[in-house]
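Subject: Protein record for review, amino acid sequence with backbone structure tokens
Concerning: The relation between a protein's sequence and the shape of its backbone.
How to read it: Take the token row as a discrete description of the fold.
Enclosed: The protein record, placed directly beneath this head.
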Amino acid sequence: MIVGGGPAGMMAGYLLARAGVDVAVLEKHPDFFRDFRGDTIHPSTLELMYELELLGDFLKLPHQELGQVRGIFNGHAVPVADFSRLPTHCKFIAFMPQWDFLNFLAERGKQFPTFTLHMEHEAVDLLFENDRVVGVRAKTPAGERDFRADLVIGADGRHAITHEKARLELMELGAPIDVLWMRLSKRRDDPPQTLGFFRHGKLLVLLDRDDYFQVGFVIPKGGFDEIKQRGLSALHQEIVQLGPFLKDRITELDDWSKIKLLTVQINRLKKWCREGLLCIGDNAHAMSPAGGVGINLALQDAVATANLLAAKLKTRAVSVAELSEVQARREWPTRVIQRMQVFIHRHVVTGRSSGSDDKLPFFLHLFIWFPFLRTLPARMIGLGPRPEHIQSPKA
């Protein structure tokens, strides 16, 4: 039983069903359409699609390909990451709406007889017997229903009911920023996709969704009320200072209802499991949007889960010691990425102005002078620490 139909849940469901394990995925929404879902499909994930023999069909979905990541720092364009040297079949990031990605996995999963996807099924509680999790109570269109399972995989995100009901302790690492999320129209002559527009501690990110931009604007943690008090025109001015080409359409944001607040969290569970329950993805470790790596880490968790547990689950329930092997495998990469994100937020992107000098910081000159250095962030962003490969069986 998998709670949550996000990247971790859908990938785990697909891989377990592929191995012949009976699996049901519970998704509380009627569809996968969410504007706040991330869009970046990194080379590590594309490599998984290749290993599953799904890459050709996957790349037929609408997407944009980014072979290099560049940022605009204090008005200067800097190439930061070059994916051309990665040891993968796809040497680019694919920008694809996450709902397309999830629908793709769902349709492929339904081809397996042991896969079931229940939409509009919201987990509201865990079922216990002798201190072991034995299932989930869910709210469905037909009323509440109990689902029993040998294993519950909690993939229900950062506000997870599963780890809350299981009383698993959460460790907050702190994030000094939040993000305002909005839409602006796109023009044919707009600049190409970039990592973002940085200026004096502030950041503007534009995700290309073909006919419009999904816009992320970083603000100080808890600062939304103060921004509202200053008024929409002040916000317009701050955004245009980072992305001047948006001046001709910024007034499309003519009401606060068009601007959503995303609260950024960086945390992780001290223990990812207990008897009968395993937490993965954002449930086990909420990530910052920095680098767009959260989706791909969640997918890596799902792959490790299937690699370690699929063959066992086909014949029996697994022990808490066996569940702990997933955390042992995936916690180190999580710690590495979270430490980097905390550093970036505290020293680079704070949501606050940090001066008026428009010079390019010295360390960024290194990426211009020495192109081979772009391989290092490319590996961290594109592959991450300890990338997983498909080792789970195929029934």
Q: What stands out?
A: The chain is about 30% helix and 25% strand. The chain has two domains: 2-66+93-172+265-347, 177-220+222-263.
